[in-house]
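Forwarding these from the shared drive since the link keeps breaking.
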Amino acid sequence: MLDFFATWCRPCIDEIPHLITLTKTYPNSTLVIISISLDFPNVDNSVVRTFAKDMGITWTVARDTAGVANKYEVFDIPTLIFVDQEGNIRSRYIGLTESDALRSKIQLIIPEFVMPTAMMTLALAATLIVIRKRQ
């Protein structure tokens, strides 16, 4: 998920707790968040770094010094863009978006989170039985 934000943007700041909730729900190997600051050129690295630390951001934060927002057609902030495992844009949210709405989209993109744990365990057990019978 790409998170386009600015350090001075109140809705962007209000969205951070929702993103933190997602990082606690989904492991980094499943959901990767990259926050891209659109403060450039007015704000330097140290301001963005301090902002991230003060807000409790544990994922990757970068400054947009190469026009990434233009490439993704970001005109308003905050903007969240979901990119799937194959690099396809799957969804775009503009404005403050709560974690429940984001979670529902993640569950569509990452199907293994839709399957309940018990069903997943049974499916793995059945696969192991089939593999053992073939040996």
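-- next protein --
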Amino acid sequence: MCMQPSFSQRVYDLTLSIQPGYVTTYGALARAAGGGSMAARSITSILGKAPNQKSIPYHRIVYANGTVWLPVGREQERQKMYKREGIIVNDKGKIQDFEELLWEFE
């Protein structure tokens, strides 16, 4: 009998599959992992407990309207990550060309 990976493991694996220069939303990630509409709220908590924290591209997960989360004290670091990947974040904290940069999960 083949066991399916847990929801948390699927979230982790899908997050690692997002290529540089692309973003996804909390909701799209939750749906791709097999979760319902409320599952998006658990993404941050799940990833916060995942192994190998440094490998998780948190900056590639954004809000549904294209707004990025810039943690207090780490705004410049996060902005550099976006710039390095060619992602432009406007002065209101939204990704330019958001729809074109959305990662499609297979």
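The beta strands are 24-25, 61-62. The chain has one domain: 7-101.

- D.
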